[in-house]
Amino acid sequence: MEVVIVPDAKAGGELIAEAMAALVRRKSDALLGVATGSTPLPIYEALAAKVRAGEVDASRARICQLDEYVGLPAGHPESYRSVVLREVVAPLGLDESAFMGPDGSAADVQGACEAYDRALAEAGGVDLQLLGIGTDGHIGFNEPCSSLASRTRIKTLTEQTRVDNARFFDGDIDQVPHHVITQGIGTILEARHLVLLATGEGKADAVAATVEGPVASVVPASALQLHPHATVIVDEAAASKLKLADYFRHTYANKPEWQGL
């Protein structure tokens, strides 16, 4: 696993945005997997700035999402589809047809999960998947003890997750859905490049368990150790529990520039 320690979230966003831009320069129709939440926003802002500056032509790029609420009506402003269209697709100047995601309002939710897995495969697979990490080590909505071979499926949100997400629903937890569709860990691991961004001291224990601990379902993100091209980018606070922090700093500082991420 490649671990890069950066000064702050902005630096992490710039670094990942350049990796995404480099990918799109090599493969103009790359399929980019995105995550929601506040952590990846610096990435999207930096990538959109590169597009506006003419540093990269993203007009043929494709976007797919990691997870989606179940039961929100089409066009609901807090559906993850709406969030991705608003925060990623539109700022990159892409048409909505460039977007792929599971149907969280489908009558047959399990069928929608299976259809999304098929759609990703038929699209040629995800070239780069962005990930965040929870304080308990979850990725997507794969909570601790999720199968490391799991496919896209429906999951029940924990009460704490619903409490945390209530801020996006005017503080009303009753408006927060109880279920989500999430790419499973097995699905996530099929992406060609996995890039996880973590910032803040609150993520330090999860990062240490992910990078330096054993591969175990109790820390779902530890499955990234099984991937041939996984990059973990953390700020100094999130890296504070890493025993090998100095080694990671030295390795990246002396990495040939042409290798990128």
From TrEMBL:
Pfam families: Glucosamine_iso (PF01182). It comes from the Bacteria. The record marks 146, 153, 155-156 as: Part of the allosteric site. Pathway: Amino-sugar metabolism; N-acetylneuraminate degradation; D-fructose 6-phosphate from N-acetylneuraminate: step 5/5. It is an enzyme of class 3 (hydrolase). The keyword Hydrolase applies. The active site is at residues 67, 136, 138, 143. One of its GO terms (molecular function) is identical protein binding. The keyword Hydrolase applies. InterPro entries: Glc/Gal-6P_isomerase, Glucosamine6P_isomerase, Glucosamine6P_isomerase_CS, NagB/RpiA_transferase-like. Allosterically activated by N-acetylglucosamine 6-phosphate (GlcNAc6P). Keywords: Allosteric enzyme, Carbohydrate metabolism, Hydrolase. Its EC number is 3.5.99.6. It catalyses: alpha-D-glucosamine 6-phosphate + H2O = beta-D-fructose 6-phosphate + NH4(+). Residues 10-225 form the Glucosamine/galactosamine-6-phosphate isomerase domain. One of its GO terms (cellular component) is cytoplasm. One of its GO terms (biological process) is N-acetylglucosamine catabolic process. NCBIfam families: nagB, PRK00443.1-4. Belongs to the glucosamine/galactosamine-6-phosphate isomerase family. NagB subfamily. Catalyzes the reversible isomerization-deamination of glucosamine 6-phosphate (GlcN6P) to form fructose 6-phosphate (Fru6P) and ammonium ion. This is Glucosamine-6-phosphate deaminase. It comes from Streptomyces alboflavus. The gene is nagB.
